[in-house]
């Protein structure tokens, strides 16, 4: 870790622009954040800054930056903001995390990420060291100590801005590589996200804690008996809070010089932070050894790559928040230690934030754990009244919850040196160096931050609740109605107390910096973030969010009740009528009933999207087909129809038993009746013809001969172009009565596909006819559709450019060649393939095979095309056929059993068949 490195000076405006683009891009979180990081890295100061780093370190930086950018995404639910809660002790504003929407308990705030970066001993020491020559160096690190590892770690990411509350509303947990937070109880919008650091983090029994709960309950730092005796002096602190941390004992020699000086402006992030203390540890807290409450974090945190260590926390500036970190000034070296002997607190915690910030001489802003004198002073000033301002110039309470300043609305600093510091740390906080506020102002105890939700809850006038010590109402943010904050940086108030307003607009309504920033980014008033279409929150939905908001402005009076009743009744009756009408219609329409044949219990919900790769487990699907057993596919599947668009038809469940009793309405019976009637008509016709012939004087023998030669009907129904198997899936009879090329093709496809388990059509890979006669061509097929693996090269039949496969060309060829296509002719020499053993029984015999479409070859599955191999045959309509129209996957493409298993029976779909590329090949001559 290079302590002399300077942080990149990035224009706040540039950062704001990047953040804005995340919002306006309206793209999913990952995309927009990645784009933002890319832009950030391209900014000249950043580019210059990272040039000396390794790729790994740059990557770590990018990851780190992305965690901050993520917060600004419209789907986000938190924001980094300022808090003045501790400023009466620390003399400066600190940062905190606020909820930007209601969060229900159990919600995981995924964007509140943190990670632990391992620190070497040298880095650990280095962090504590102050570079006196370099005023640009600011150290703003949160460091936590892992007891089990006996090491300090940098705590990085937005999670490190979560403050402690004795009644915390979130708990930390580890999620893989990250630390994140789970909501323990409902959090309302604007409320601070808090965690529990441990029971003795802020002194024994947290007696110096300044959390809201302590404030409410009058304990901790707000306890009435919070006396001098309670406040550890340098020595007492060292005694009671001694540390065994080895790194301290090996502190750099220069540290010793200033060991007794307290860095009053540091943000003390101490060991054990965010740790959940076990009972035993609690007991150990009773001892004065504060290390006892240090919870081993090693098991709970992730130790990221070393690169993160190097990157420190520079990106916290990305939030465009005015830093609460005090830029370091040239001056006497300060060390974070309280005393030479007290190490536990200082050494482990004082690495944070403003370790390099010198305390102006005589400026005794007490830190949270400060000297006895400082504490006593603070207590004296604040003990009598919670908010006591003895400065006439300051008529407001000074410690208020606050927000950040919007970069675009920054008032340029007037102070020269200050301006430099501001720009160097990308904290464009307005500065008015001349506008000094007495130290005492900052020491007054803050009132509990009042959130907008509190105001609503209280329901009282704002003035009643929020009054300053002078009785005057405190200025509120025009948008969120929080008290306008007072933001102090480096012991100077930079925002608030009238500084936020330009002289002309003094009377104008004022927004707090947070709301101003929000508007600058989102173009909408806080807390609205424009919803992105198709962009879901990274959070689990909270019940409150799901419920429809009640428009309280529209009240239901007694007057309107009858009208409402009438309306409801009207809607109900119209619904009832439509249901009845539908039922009647259903009854009148047998075709509809045909559809209902599918057992609804077994009907699965149609799924969309990529076909799932599932093992071949053929369910016993039974397709209703008159009395005859539908031939089983060799793999155990029954055939499934296809529609005109190439999609699978609905599967018919086995429970569909059409023969249960006679139903004159049933389409099946209807078709039988029609056949019978046709037969009778034919018989009548023959009789008539016979009569006519007999009248012409022909003998019976002659009439029989004519009848035999086909001039008379032969007691068969009239000859019609009938397809060998009627698909149960056809809804219309048009396809039968009017055969067209399109109908033909659709018909052919309708019978060609099998079903596996009756689940969604889209879930299954369509089975494609294959053509062994086609010359192979190399087609590069993206496997992404299937397993997101790398591209795979498979061979597929070359499709001549002139040939445009379509149902028409397919059907034309079929119709022209009737039962035998040219391809078929070519395949004939191999002889009519014999059915594999046992298949005859399954398939049945004597079916017209002219329209059969080969179903599946498992050649790609590593099987050879073998007569004995049932996969070598195509089955359709119960007829065995040699494989015709089939793709050839040449032998130079090897599909391992493994890959095929993974893909289920997907391979034919590598060349996803559709009507643009139906998956079969046709002779050029035909087309
Ligand atoms: C992990 S940091 C939290 C972020 C911190 N507010 C900041 O701006 O860096 C922990 C530090 O926040 C402050 N802090 C958090 N909770 C506190 C509490 N309940 N009482 C006093 N100080 C607290 C202390 O300075 C502590 O060392």
From TrEMBL:
Residues 76-198 form the SET domain. GO terms for molecular function: histone H4K20 methyltransferase activity. Residues 333-353, 391-414 have a biased composition (Low complexity). Residues 256-268, 455-470, 586-596, 834-848 have a biased composition (Basic and acidic residues). Residues 601-613 have a biased composition (Basic residues). CDD domains: SET_Suv4-20-like. Residues 239-248, 282-293 have a biased composition (Acidic residues). Residues 316-332, 380-390 have a biased composition (Polar residues). Pfam families: SET. Residues 218-470, 533-553, 571-682, 753-776, 819-849 are annotated as: Disordered. InterPro entries: SET_dom (IPR001214), SET_dom_sf (IPR046341), Suv4-20/Set9 (IPR039977). It comes from the Eukaryota. Gene3D superfamilies: SET domain. One of its GO terms (cellular component) is nucleus. This is SET domain-containing protein.
